[in-house]
């Protein structure tokens, strides 16, 4: 190996080390949750999807601003999407809901309001009707 090649190798290894140290750092909020100190959810909400409908928990979904909650969404037939939207129609988050899998997401809402749930994955002819206005109430 020539000297110039060795220099490049050292530079590439140094770049890889710095890149990984930076992106895996707990200073990056999502990495902090994933690797270092995941918040414990205050509450878990189980939502079942089947035949183009959402089955919410019997007591509904009420969440406090700033408290981590986990949504666990399962599908009994096809792939759906689980999307949460603000009152102005802008999206907060979404995830795919694969059948036969425990799809979960941890979330902290930072604004009070009534949030709408929609399927965000084309799932078949009734997909456009998969909208539940005011399904999640977030309170101070
Ligand atoms: Cu759908």
Give descriptors for this structure.
5-stranded mixed beta sheet; 140 residues; Immunoglobulin-like; binds copper (II) ion; alpha+beta; elongated
Would you list the SSEs in sequence order as H and E? Answer: HHEEEEEEEEE
What ranges have pLDDT less than 50 throughout 5 or more consecutive residues?
none
Instruction: Write the CATH homologous superfamily of the largest domain.
Output: Cupredoxins -  blue copper proteins
Number of domains: 2
Bound molecules: copper (II) ion
Number of helices: 2
Give the N-to-C terminal Cα separation. 64 Å
What's the oligomerization state? single chain
The CATH architecture term of the largest domain is Sandwich
Instruction: Summarize model confidence as the mean pLDDT.
Output: 94
Main sheet overview: 5 strands, mixed
CA-based gyration radius: 21 Å
Q: What helical percentage do the residues reach?
A: 10-25%
Structural category: alpha+beta
CATH class of the largest domain: Mainly Beta
Strand order of the largest sheet: 3-9-8-5-6
What does this molecule look like?
Helix content is 21%, strand content 41%. By secondary structure, the protein is α+β, with helices and mostly antiparallel strands. It has two domains: 3-36; 43-139, Immunoglobulin-like, CATH 2.60.40. A hairpin with a 2-residue loop joins strand 1 (43-50) and strand 2. The longest helix has 21 residues, at 3-23. It binds copper (II) ion (CU). Copper (II) ion binds at residues 80-81, 119, 121-123, 127, 130.
């Amino acid at each position: 190996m020539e000297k110039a090649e060795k220099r490049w190798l050292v530079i590439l290894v140094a770049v890889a080390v710095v890149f990984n140290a930076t992106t895996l750092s707990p200073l990056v909020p999502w990495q902090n949750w994933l690797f270092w100190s995941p918040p414990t959810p205050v509450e878990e909400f189980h939502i079942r999807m089947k035949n183009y409908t959402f089955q919410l928990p019997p007591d509904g979904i009420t969440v406090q601003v700033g408290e981590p909650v986990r949504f666990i969404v399962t599908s009994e037939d096809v792939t759906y999407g689980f999307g949460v939207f603000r009152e102005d129609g802008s999206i907060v988050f979404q995830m795919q809901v694969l059948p036969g899998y425990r799809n979960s997401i941890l979330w902290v809402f930072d604004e009070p309001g009534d949030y709408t749930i929609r399927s965000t994955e084309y799932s078949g002819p009734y997909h456009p009707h998969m909208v539940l206005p005011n399904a999640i109430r977030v309170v101070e």
